[in-house]
Write a structure and sequence with these properties.
alpha/beta, Rossmann fold, 7-stranded mixed β-sheet, 12 helices, 7 strands, about 15% strand
Amino acid sequence: MDKEDPNIKEIIFEIKKKKELSGLADIIVFEPLIKYLNKNNLKSSSLADFSDRDKKLLVKEIRAELRLLHGRFQASKKPRMELFKRDDIESLLKTHSSTKERMLIYEKIKSLIKSLKVDSILDLGCGLNPIALADKGAFYYASDINESDLSLVNEFFKKNNIKGKVFFHDLRKTSEQLPEVDLCLLFKVFDIIENKGHKLAESILLNLKCKYLLVSFSTKKLSGKSMHKPKRVWFEKLLSRISYKFSIINEENEIFYLVEK
């Protein structure tokens, strides 16, 4: 099935009407939609015969899946580009829930990165992190599945003469080639994309070409309550199994693993 099919395009358009999903690349919406059709033995042409009720149920199901992947990070509906043009970076960062939580520790993260003396950074699932972290001291690769986030980051790079590159990348596609860098950032991504067995996380770690990784996990549940056991024992076991050294940095809302390959 083709995402240029008019029936497919109509559903994708409807799904992306939700503000928190509007920035997602069409291919990210296309994949769960095709999975839904295949699971129900449907062709794209069948969508034309869907009742309004059936279309609503389909859209609702796909939106729910996409929110788990990305939509929950939208913290504010303020017009981001207007905030950017006004140089209101603090308010801009607060429109993304993870960067909002990270506001008080970004300086610590920047100091840590500086101490590693890196010349290049790859930020996977970057969101708006580059706006808080990128400077002229290192080439910054920023990747995400949200095209509106990437557009903002790109404008920030140009306006501030930051050497960098933004590009779409789906972390679940581990076969895609990524640039070789000194440091890779993976903030709050593994809990979202991982399945049972943690094979995807292992594949990502083994395929990344870098000296250091800074990986984080939330220490709070979606409800906002603190986790009783915020450490990711499975991740620590994985690192030990593949002989990667690591240290742990605990913050109020996030736990960080500084990994050396």
